[in-house]
Design goal:
The chain has 127 residues and is mostly helical. It contains six helices and two strands. It has a two-stranded parallel ribbon. Helix 5 runs antiparallel to helix 6.
């Protein structure tokens, strides 16, 4: 797996680090997988058909066992397709605030005139 991990990371090929440093990083990951957390932010912006080998490898579980991977994404057709192809262990959804919760928050932190102006401007931009 260490050799495949090197292919997945491709850090030295991208010119980010030299090959010796990459080897040290890979050895650390291999020896300490539970201490690692890879974050893939904005995965919804990647088209499924254009998904790089790195992302495909991560989603197919080709990282070391016990490595933690966090993926952030908005709801999208692309994410639905990726999730069907590579089911996730856990999925969480961060919910937004209701209009009432937003108004309450704003009114606690601004004087009445500023809060009214802000909330009016915000409602004018809602779709």
């Amino acid at each position: 797996k260490a050799e495949h991990l090197a292919d997945l990371l491709q850090l030295s090929k991208m010119g980010i680090i030299d090959p010796a440093e990459q080897t040290a990083i890979i050895n650390f990951i291999k020896d300490n997988p539970a201490q690692m957390c890879f974050i893939m932010d904005g995965l919804d912006e990647v088209k499924v058909e254009e998904c790089s080998e790195y992302i495909q490898g991560v989603l197919q579980g080709e990282m070391e066992k016990d490595v933690n991977i966090i993926i952030t994404s908005r709801h999208s057709k692309n994410m639905f397709a990726l999730q069907r192809k590579h089911p996730f262990d856990n999925q969480y959804e961060i919910l937004g605030f209701s209009p009432e919760e937003i108004a309450s928050f704003v009114r606690k932190r601004m004087d009445a005139a500023d809060a009214d102006c802000f909330l009016e401007a915000m409602s004018a931009t809602e779709h």
